[in-house]
Structures are given as C-alpha cells and as structure tokens.
Amino acid sequence: xxxxxxxxxxxxxxxxxxxxxxxxxxxxxxxxxxxxxxxxxxxxxxxxxxxxxxxxxxxxxxxxxxxxxxxxxxxxxxxxxxxxxxxxxxxxxxxxxxxxxxxxxxxxxxxxxxxxxxxxxxxxxxxxxxxxxxxxxxxxxxxxxxxxxxxxxxxxxxxxxxxxx
Length: 165
Prior knowledge:
single chain, alpha/beta, 8 helices, Rossmann fold
C-alpha cells in the first residue's frame, strides 16, 4: 500500500474571498475549510505574496475578515520568488492565457514552483478550465516543471452545487 502524504493546496484569492459569501460558493468554501481543518494530517494550505497583495486591496472590514480566516485556517505564506514572474511570463509567451491574465498565471507559477498538488480556485473562466489546465501542464512538461491540478473546493470536499450546504 502507498503511504498517505499531506496534500499541499495552494489557495488563490477567489477561494479566500468566498469565505464570508452568502451564496452557494460561500457555503462550499466554508465546507472546504472545515474539511481541511479537521484533517490537518492530510492537507497543508499555502498562499503566495500575490494572494496577500490581492487581499490587501480589499476594503475593510472584508480585508480583516479574510486575513482572520486565513490565519484561523493556518495558511502558510510562500516566500517571494523571482522565478514566479518569469514562469508566469513563460505561460503567456507559450499561449496559456493572454498578458491581461498575468496575476492568474502568477498564482499558477507560485503553486508550481512550491510543488503544490492542487490550486484551489473559483476562477472557472480562466483557471479551473480544461484548456488552461492542459496548456499549463504542457508547458510544465516541456520546460521540466511539475504538473499541477487546478480545481474548485468541491474537488476536495465532494460537496457540489446541487447538495445542500
């Protein structure tokens, strides 16, 4: 039997921003955080300087609520990494997404360089999209970076939009 190891989950800003949302995504996000919190031996949560930068731009009191949620969940902050900007630019030059999506691709780059197993995101237009995931992993393979999964919180919890949350 293969021994279990902790999964390293990168949280992009969209997931943390839904912590206090009153909609379905908010409920699923809170369930995601509950599941991760009760299984600390299974999951490690990380955020990047990009996540912190984007959350810092939120107005108060939302900013305080989101930072408190991150602290409560025990999120580790990745160090600034010059290679993340370079890798994000490589994704752009290879046609993963256009230059207007540099922040999204910087999130991906941080997660890849930190050897995360998954990026957890609600950005289904640009990140949690089969073409983006396929292109990111093709670039990663071509340039000898590890592969990455990009999923919504439901992937971890099993709770879907159709379930009562």
